[in-house]
Amino acid sequence: MTYRVYSGPKGAPDPSPIEKQKMLYKEFISLDEALWWANHLSRRDRVALSIEGDDGTRMDRRAIGAAIAVAPQARSA
Predict the structure, then answer these.
(1) What is the DSSP string of 4-62?
(2) Is residue 70 classed as helix, strand or coil in its secondary structure?
(3) What is the pLDDT of residues 13-22, one digit of tens each?
(4) Residue 1: partners with Cβ closer than 8 Å, 6 or more residues away
(5) pLDDT above 50 (res 77)
(6) pLDDT over 90 (residue 63)
(7) Which of 8, 15, 60, 61 is the least buried, fewest Cβ under 10 Å from its Cβ?
(8) Distances in Å between the alpha carbon of 52 and those of 45, 48, 73?
(9) In the prediction, which pLDDT does 45 show?
């Protein structure tokens, strides 16, 4: 199972499906790792725009932000 994290600069618009085909992404084997990366990005003036998983998981930036806000900060950068 893999999860792809699409990212961009803060303030970037939500990418369309066609734009995502051209975007670079970082891949993770678990949703927890993908969310950890999204949290890491937010501390580096970047933002996770979308997380998509092979299992059908689809998270937009609002869902990612909500998940990060309630997640315990167990790992550090």
Answers:
(1) EEEEEETTPPPPPHHHHHHS-EEEESSHHHHHHHHHHHHTTTEEEEEEEETTS-EEEHH
(2) helix
(3) 999 999 999 9
(4) 29, 30, 53, 54, 55
(5) no
(6) yes
(7) 60
(8) 21, 11, 22
(9) 87
- Return the domain boundaries, the chain: 3-70
Which two structure tokens, joined as six digits, stand for 48?
């996770």
Which residues lie across from 7 on neighbouring strands? 48
What is the pLDDT at residue 69?
Answer: 86
Paired tokens of 11 = 């303030």
Rounded to the nearest 10 degrees, the angle between the axes of helix 31-42 and helix 61-70 is: 90
CA–CA dist 4, 18 (Å, integer)? 15
